[in-house]
Amino acid sequence: MTIRATANGIAILGLSLALGLGGCASTETARGRIVKAAPRCADQTAQIYFDSFSAELTKEGRAVIAAAAQQARPCKVTGVEVLGLADSVGGASDSNLDLSKRRAQAVTAALAGAGLPAAEFKITAVGETGSTTADGRARPLRRRADIVVHLAPS
Question: Where are the domains of the chain?
Fold first, then answer.
């Protein structure tokens, strides 16, 4: 008699566990359908770095642009700002201004090519302005374009 009671108890315990775990699984699945993370549609900023004297995008720069475009897809793009910069190394101020313009244009073209939803692009280039320290040293991290993608929920 004790053996039968234990066997019945084990069967009931097993059935209870199966039903309980099944309930958790279905609750979690239902919860997953109800609670979904909303698209993250906050403004994004990124910096794209270039080699010296170059406006050609690097592999890393293309990856950053692709990631920005991917993150913006579920959102409404309300505007894009691209600021081209250059350092003070090399040629004259005019050539550095031209280089910063070409960097901004290269980034803008890559953003559009990566599938960034249509938006108004504001392109600015400042050349070497602000590219030296107070004691006259060049700032090589100025070889870049800064991007701000303004996003809103769609």
Answer: 1-36, 44-153
Strands in 75-84's sheet, in edge-to-edge order, are 44-49, 144-153, 75-84, 121-125
**CA dist., res. 3 & res. 6, Å (int):** 5
Each residue's pLDDT tens digit, 22-76: 554 555 566 555 556 555 799 999 999 999 889 999 999 999 999 999 999 899 9
Do 146 and 65 contact (CB within 8 A), yes or no?
no
Q: Evaluate whether 124 touches 82 at the Cβ level (below 8 Å).
A: yes
Residue count of the chain, please give it: 154
pTM beyond 0.90? no
> What's the CATH fold of domain 44-153?
60s Ribosomal Protein L30; Chain: A; (3.30.1330)
